[in-house]
Amino acid sequence: MVLKEKVLNIYQILYFLNIHKLIANKLIANKKELFIPIPLLVHKI
Q: Which of 6, 16, 26, 37 is the S-S candidate for 33 at Cβ 3.0 to 4.6 Å?
């Protein structure tokens, strides 16, 4: 159970880093698209 939680935490950290890269890329490309991933991010938590 503890091991599973640690793996989940690592996955969440990597997922958040990916989202931040995605947001940064979209911010450069088009500022309007920045707000699209945020509700999806909240929904997946």
A: 26
Q: Is the C-alpha dihedral spanning 10, 22, 43, 39 positive or negative?
A: positive
Cα–Cα distances (Å) from 2 to 10, 11, 14, in that order, read: 13, 14, 19
Q: What does the alpha-carbon distance between residue 21 and residue 18 come to, in Å, rounded to a whole number?
A: 5
Whole-model pTM: value is 0.42
pLDDT, tens digit, 9 for 90 and up, residues 24-36 = 777 767 665 555 5
Rg (CA), the chain: 13
Rounded Cα distance, 4 and 25, in Å: 31
